[in-house]
Design a protein that fits this description.
By secondary structure, the protein is an alpha/beta fold. It has four domains: 154 residues, 3-Layer(aba) Sandwich (Rossmann fold); 55 residues, Helicase, Ruva Protein, domain 3, CATH 1.10.8.60; 80 residues, no CATH class; 161 residues, DnaA, N-terminal domain (GMP Synthetase, Chain A, domain 3). Strands 2-3-4-1-5 form a five-stranded parallel beta sheet, with helices on one face. Helix 14 packs antiparallel against helix 15 and helix 16 packs across helix 17.
Length: 506
């Protein structure tokens, strides 16, 4: 069996390390001048050369030719599996013995952040004052997890992700040497997927060379399970143009073809980063930044497909100010409306909170979620609830005070009920006396908000922020159900309901 490419083309000297010249030049100069430290710390993303540099340094410090074969005086320790205090105590005893044949005993501790707190404490004294014949080289991808006392006792070198063009050029050299038939677009796709990691990029090239014929961009995308770039562009365009039904339809199409939500989210993130670097439109930049931040959470979610759909659809909905206002057959008395607006304004101002949401003084208990909130009728079918008449502010009179109140409520909800927040933030609020009416664009969102558990949370949060008991009801926009223009997208709206309706989000 042939040697894997990553091992075959591992760097064997500091001069062969690609993309880390800011480190290799400094280390080479230190070796030449004999300015040797007792402890080094190499940090940076995986696959950028930390282990290679550590091994090269261990050999160079001892004046040895680089070799993949183990050396008795070069000890590699994986902190992920040797992270206990007993392991470190054993190390402390062994460092006291002199090297067998080399000048220095070099300990390479990989993924050092995995050591326990007790192990770090046990290591600290030895790291601070090691025997003259001992040198430590620590490596980690998560330097923020290291105690400051450890970092301060080392010389730290931070490795960077390797630039895309350098990865591509290195892959070209390997492909030429191995007689691998691959085009430039495929190499660029491999390098892009590696995200600055040589190891990941070379490993993918190794995997791709087993296929027959010329390796193309399409074949690499098939290996990765990536969607074609034009589909990703379509989704972003639909989000920008606020075509939520098309977003839902395109996502469903991709799922049917076997694409995973986490990979779609990754591709969307990369494409958005590219667009952000190219656009000068401030408003669009802000919207895309917010979308990018939310996409980052998709891969780590227990339900990535549902979170991805919710994120994209929330950004694909038009702003509340541009949505059609509901029409009502009976208008309330104007004097009553003005009186209500005055009352609401004073209530909101008296209960104003800062941007950092304060927790509820009386947190919602589990048993409270099982029973309907006071004053809320749960007997009627969700789809049969009519639009309120006199219970909400008339069309075109959504008050700033109500919007302020609702934003404060949303910030409270966000702290403990993130999925509910994602749905509630798309609703439009209308306040009349002790009733807050939430108007949604889609029946699915109304259904979710009207669930007993969710409405109890809403009632609790609204009442607490206002400082008085407040009922909450949720309705579907009359324009969504009655407007003839929306008949052409009714099937897509149904698709949205089907996507979410079959799974429990909360």
């Amino acid at each position: 069996m042939g040697q894997v490419l990553y091992r075959k083309y591992r760097s064997r000297s500091l001069s062969e390390i690609v993309g880390q010249e800011h480190i290799t030049k400094t280390l080479a100069h230190a070796l030449e001048t004999g300015k040797i430290s007792h402890a080094y710390l190499l940090t940076g993303p995986r696959g950028t050369g930390k282990t290679s540099i550590a091994r090269i340094m261990a050999h160079a410090l001892n004046g040895l030719e680089y070799s993949e074969d183990p050396h008795f005086d070069i000890i590699e320790i994986d902190a992920a599996s040797n992270n206990g205090v007993e392991d470190v105590r054993d190390l402390r005893e062994k460092v006291q013995s002199a090297p067998t044949s080399a000048k220095y005993k070099v300990y390479i501790i990989d993924e050092v952040h995995m050591l326990s707190k007790a192990a770090f404490n046990a290591l600290l004294k030895t790291l601070e004052e090691p025997p003259a014949h001992v040198i430590f080289i620590l490596a980690t991808t998560e330097v923020h997890k290291l105690p400051e006392t450890i970092i301060s006792r080392t010389q730290r070198y931070a490795l960077r992700p390797v630039p895309l063009e350098k990865v591509v050029n290195h892959l070209k050299t390997i492909a030429k040497s191995e007689k691998i038939d691959i085009d430039d677009e495929a190499l660029a796709t491999i390098a892009e997927h590696g995200d600055g990691s040589f190891r990941d990029s070379i490993s993918l090239l190794d995997q791709a060379r087993s296929q027959e014929g010329k390796i193309t961009k399409s074949s690499i995308e098939n290996i990765l399970g990536r969607a074609p770039a034009e589909i990703i562009d379509d989704i972003i365009s639909y989000v920008d143009s606020k075509e939520s039904a098309k977003v839902a339809g395109k996502l469903q199409e991709m799922y049917d073809q076997g694409y995973e939500a986490s990979m779609i989210a990754t591709q969307l993130s990369r494409q958005l980063r590219t667009r952000l670097a190219e656009t000068s439109d401030y408003a669009r930049t802000q919207a895309q930044l917010e979308l990018l931040k939310q996409l980052i959470d998709v891969a780590g979610s227990p339900k990535p497909s549902q979170l991805l759909e919710l994120v994209l659809l929330s950004h694909a909905l038009p702003p509340a100010s541009t949505q059609s206002q509901p029409k009502h057959e009976i208008a309330p008395d104007k004097s009553q409306v003005k009186s209500t607006e005055k009352k609401t304004s004073s209530q909101v101002k008296s209960n104003k909170v800062d941007d950092t949401a304060k927790p509820l003084s009386n947190p919602i208990k589990e048993e409270e979620l099982a029973t309907p909130a006071a004053g809320i009728d749960t007997s009627a079918n969700v789809g049969e609830r009519p639009l309120p008449g006199q219970e909400i502010v008339p069309a075109g009179e959504l008050t700033p005070e109500t919007e302020d109140l609702w934003q404060e409520v949303l910030q409270v909800i966000k702290q403990t009920h993130n999925t509910l927040y994602g749905i509630a933030r798309m609703a439009k609020p209308y306040l009349e006396s002790d009733i807050l009416t939430l108007e949604t664009k889609f029946p699915f969102h109304q259904k979710r908000l009207n669930e007993t558990k969710n409405r109890n949370i809403l009632v609790k949060c609204v009442s607490e922020v206002r400082g008085q008991s407040t009922n909450v009801t949720c309705v579907v926009s009359q324009t969504t159900t009655n407007n003839a223009k929306n008949e052409s997208i009714s099937k897509d709206i149904s698709t949205i309901s089907n996507i979410f309706g079959g799974a429990e989000l909360l």
